[in-house]
Each structure stands twice: as C-alpha cells, then as structure tokens.
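[READ THE FOLD]
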Amino acid sequence: MVADLSQRGLLDETLVVWGGEFGRTVYSQGKLGATDYGRDHHGRCYTMWFAGGGMKAGISYGVTDEFGFNVVQNPVHVHDVNAMIMRCMGVDHTRLTYRFQGRDFRLTDVHGKVVNDLLV
C-alpha cells in the first residue's frame, strides 16, 4: 500500500498509522501452561509505525531497557501521538477544545506535545 501511494504521488499527503496505545509484556500472563502462554497488556511501552503525511521516513525513535519493560530514551505518550497526527492534518491540538459537563477537554489533554524530531 505504501509503495502504491508513493508511486501515485499520494504518500506526501496521506498519513498511514499502524499501532496501538499499549504493547505486550515479554512475560506470560497468568500461569504458564500448554494452552495459556499469552502476554499481558503493557501500558509503558508500545510500538507505532508511521508512513508519509509529514512524518520522517526510515527512523526509529525511543528505546526500552533490555527487558522491554521501561522506556529509557525518548518517551512518547499517546497524547503526543495524537498531537503529531493532528499536526500532520493541519490542526493545532491546543486549539481543538470541546466542552463536556461544564469542563473543557482536549483530545491531547494538557499533556500532549508535538515531537518535532519525528516530523519532516
């Protein structure tokens, strides 16, 4: 798909995002058994993949410890991811505010920031 978008000249204006807001632990979830060897949700470390639409190509950003348990370099919060996606769409995330039950909310809350190292 990315190659096709590139060949058609559409990749610069199309942002492709793959990932989720949590990763998986490197250890078993529950008791290890023949039918139960899954891994638990891991909110500290996750992987996102971006292509086109204003994101830098061919880089890795962020590092975990040797166990893949904690971020040790360049952490990016899910609010930061939302802020970057919105920037690529031409939206200032600090100005996108909505009122709900008497309180102002933002998609990126008060924590989101654009990680300029990831943008072209």
About this structure: The chain has a mean pLDDT of 90.
